[in-house]
Specification:
Elements: H1 8-20, E1 43-47, E2 50-54, H2 55-67, H3 72-80, H4 84-104, H5 111-135, H6 145-154, H7 156-159, E3 161-163, E4 172-173, H8 176-206, H9 221-249, H10 252-256
Antiparallel strand pairs: 1-2, 3-4
């Protein structure tokens, strides 16, 4: 039996399709039917006489992908591929064909599809609302150099210790520069969590929110403390793994240089 291998070119087309797949199937009016496009520009894809991609719609599609920072993998591939537009067009055709198939085969009329479609729309709705909600206090998430250094000093022994003090040797630490990005992200996450709670609290007062938890089982303080401790352990483990990644990314000669990470107490 002759084996057939997928060419690198076809694999790239498939990869791009998977990276951008699904948005084309969603419609703002909750309709699952592919809409014909009539924007005055030449058609690039027609199915059963219905224009699904035009030169203008594809240009807008490509420009939006370039402007978006939501998918770093896609951004990298767009920069590496000299024929990115051609491959993306093939990928968009794949999207349209999959959605068109689902319509013609009655998939979109099934209760299972409708249920999952509604769930997907709700996830998208909440995600977009949260994205815009975060923009309301984006400036408050900025981390200054002093903040980052203060965090580093305060958590130096608990989070950034490479090797403890030993006989004749000073303790070794990850340098501030090595973990600066990780620290900034951690501070931003803490600020974001705090601001989210504060802003949501303000909204509850603004919109006269009433909550009824009578049907929920009460949780004791001991149970809450135990759960918080478990979460803290998970976060601590994640931090150790992040530090391990930092170390693995360092050049071997830098690892051997004790002057860079080593700082005595």
């Amino acid at each position: 039996m002759q084996k057939k291998f997928v060419s690198t070119k076809n694999m790239m087309t498939l990869a791009l399709s998977l990276l951008v797949l699904l948005p084309a199937c969603w419609q703002s009016d909750k309709s699952t039917e592919s809409k014909a496009i009539n924007d005055g520009s030449p058609a690039m894809l027609s199915v059963d006489g219905k224009t699904l991609i035009t030169e203008k719609s594809f240009k807008d599609y490509f420009d939006n992908l370039l402007a978006s920072n939501q998918n770093p993998q896609l951004q990298m591939m767009l920069q590496l591929l000299p024929n990115a537009k051609q491959e993306l067009f093939k990928g968009q055709v794949n999207e349209k064909m999959i959605c068109y198939w689902a319509e013609k085969e009655g998939i979109t009329s099934s209760e299972e599809y409708k249920e999952k479609f509604a769930q997907g729309l709700e996830v998208l709705r909440v995600g977009l609302a949260a994205e815009f909600f975060k923009k309301e206090f984006a400036s408050d998430l900025l981390v200054s150099e002093d903040e980052a250094r203060a965090f580093y000093d305060a958590h130096k022994d608990s989070q950034y210790l490479m090797a403890p003090k030993a006989e004749g040797k000073a303790a070794q630490y990850y340098s501030f520069e090595q973990v600066k990005q990780h620290i900034e992200q951690q501070i931003q996450n803490e600020k974001l969590a705090k601001l989210f709670l504060e802003k949501l609290g303000e909204l509850k007062g603004k919109y006269n929110v009433v909550e009824n938890t009578a049907s929920l089982a009460a949780v004791s303080e001991a149970e809450e403390a135990k759960a918080e401790e478990a979460v803290a352990q998970v976060l601590s483990q994640e931090n150790l793994e992040d530090m391990s990644d930092v170390q693995s990314d360092m050049p071997q000669e830098e690892m051997a240089d004790t002057e860079l990470p080593a700082q005595s107490l």
